[in-house]
Amino acid sequence: MASRAGGTDRISTKTKLAADLVVLGRVLVKAREARGLKQSEVAQRLGLPASYLSKVEKGTRRLDVIELVRIAEAMECDPAEIMREVQKELRGLCRVQG
To answer: Which of 15, 24, 61, 73 qualifies as a cystine partner to 55, CB 3.0-4.6 A?
Structure first.
């Protein structure tokens, strides 16, 4: 009988996206620092602990679209601009790896 959790060769989505999550985190750090904001300030605006934002910026926590929009708004930046920067960096990452 097959296991519901999948086989031993199954790779989690988080593992598959690990490098991409680091890129997203790096882009968010650049955007935050460009506005002269500290993690704690952005976290306070979000009403969340600074550890939440730290995990996001390190690439150890996945974000959904709504969370990304809220973080961008807390930093007073355009979520679409953040996504363009992420996309640009991911394209560069693909060229380096490919």
So the answer is: 61
Domains of the chain: 13-97 (1.10.260.40)
Query: Is the Cβ–Cβ distance between 63 and 56 less than 8 Å?
Result: yes
Q: State pLDDT tens for residues 3-32.
A: 455 555 566 555 677 899 999 999 999 999
What's the gap between Cα 20 and its chain centre?
8
Identify whether the C-beta of residue 42 lies closer than 8 Å to the C-beta of residue 70. no
Question: Would you say the pTM of this structure is higher than 0.90?
Answer: no
As a whole number, mean pLDDT of residues 72-93 equals 93
Helices (H) and strands (E) in the chain, counts: 6, 0
